Amino acid sequence: MKLAVGRIGRPHGVRGEVTVEVRTDDPEERFRPGTVFATDAGPVVVEAARWHKGVLLLSVEGVRSREAAEELRDTMLLIDSEDVAPTGDPDEFHDHQLIGLAVVTVSGEPVGEVTDVLHHGQDLLVVRRGGGEDAYIPFVKALVPEVDVEGGRLVVDPPEGLL
Fold first, then answer.
1. What is the pLDDT of residue 87?
2. Which partner for 68 in 19, 63, 133, 159 could form a disulfide, CB atoms 3.0-4.6 Å apart?
């Protein structure tokens, strides 16, 4: 499974640097020079990475002009999920581990399947329900008491009205 660790944004300057919307907890590790990312347009190789006013800037192999950098705008930078090391914390999960899990209530009623994880201040599980509508469940221990990645399921204890 491919994971997005960044999205290329606007060009920076005239020498081909691009801004990156970082989608990883460890940008220094993920965006090292020599790193190869998969993209829809083919591989992208990092030549250099630096921070400028809180924004990650990349120099990409073969991109030497603002125009060439503009062509990369909105390109997702992907890695293989097998390249992501386990966290070692039993209560911490990577998004790709949660997506696809079956969701059931503490009483065993099927709820749906995790289709996405949103990170907007509070982590939210996006759960596709049987009728095709989505439910948004805050990913906190009180509401999600059990995550069984190996068993392929996640148990929720929703308050009245959440589902």
1. 64
2. 63
